[in-house]
Design a protein that fits this description.
Layout lengths: L2 H10 L3 E3 L5 E2 L5 E2 L1 E3 L8 H19 L6 E5 L4 H11 L3 E4 L12 E2 L7 E9 L3 H12 L3 E10 L3 H10 L2 E7 H10 L5 H12 L4 H4 L4
Parallel strand pairs: 5-6, 5-8, 8-9, 9-10
Antiparallel strand pairs: 1-4, 2-3, 6-7
Helix pairs in contact: 1-6, 2-3, 4-5, 6-7
Amino acid sequence: MSRERIADILLDIGAVTLSPAKPYRYASGILSPIYTDCRLLMSHVKEREEVVGAYEEVLRDKIGLKNVDCLAAVASSGIPHAAWLAERIKKPMVYVRKEEKDHGKQNLIEGRLEKGAKVVVIEDLVSQGGSSLNAVKSVKAAGAKPTHCVVIFTYEMPKSIEGFKQEGVELIPLTNITTLVKRATAKKIISREQEGIVLEWTQDTAGWGKKKGFE
């Protein structure tokens, strides 16, 4: 499935919204011209089936199912997609918490992850890559071998690209912000000038708001 089709799905169901003229303020305080909530896919059956199908295409055609022993979802947003995908390809699945539980066995990884297993990490969004890279490190610490991280959408931020390179894990997005803003322009959601403004944000998230006169 094409990157353009995945981008269209995200735009059409409102999983990604763009507002370069009146940016969103994240909990971190950063101003952003884009807001993403891929969890909305859970409520759109046809679209989520297309997205899970696109995940499956990547695992079958780009990675090869023989090279996948287990899927590791990043909690919590990666869990539903990994669960649907694991059922399709008949592979085991675990999920990785952001931090250890403070009760019971204090697990960081839920499910059974065999040492030496070749693991594909599943996430919905990669911005700076923090949660996905933490999951990669947790899988490594458990004695398994993360090889790829497959995500629905990435902001293509330099920090995330470098982070995955350092970990030796290939990041494979179903679509990316470059493709999405082009589709948004084609759909007349934003102008061509605003397309460039959105892409500028990915290169300087902390300073973008001030540079554009919003702060």
